[in-house]
């Protein structure tokens, strides 16, 4: 049981980091300036639900892409790892000003918050690799539960967005973005190494 809990925690942390919370937080703050509190809560809920639904579909049905397009899991690992590196570099050069979006009455919950900020190419690739690599009911349950917890984390963060912004300010959000970039670069290195090692065998 302890091993399962550790695996859920590790997977959830990885998924949450891949959803680039600093970028999502900055975009949410700038895009909901004119919203009242019920609208902000509704937007936060719709964003997290969209992220979870997209993640679950990719996790369980993303492997169909391999048979359709004819590429291998290891090739996809290397490709998604390269995208992770790009995401990490982007976060290292990120600033809250770059993530500002302008919104009047448009719904920003699905686009751009859920896609492409939370579910960008790197996170999509990683989730597909995770789903394809998962064998057995327990592994699938761990993946699904981790997606649910990570999506709930996004929801909780967006609900507390104003409070977080007051505490962190722009400098704090920028530092958090850099730390997220470092974590994602480490994940990218592991994904690419696994793909290359399996390919060379």
From TrEMBL:
Domain of life the protein comes from: Bacteria
Membrane topology, from the record: Multi-pass membrane protein
InterPro entries: Multi_antbiot-R_MarC
GO cellular-component term (any): plasma membrane
Regions crossing the membrane: 6-29, 49-69, 113-131, 137-158, 179-200
NCBIfam families, sorted: NAAT family transporter (TIGR00427)
The protein's name in its UniProt record: UPF0056 membrane protein
Organism: Gilliamella apicola
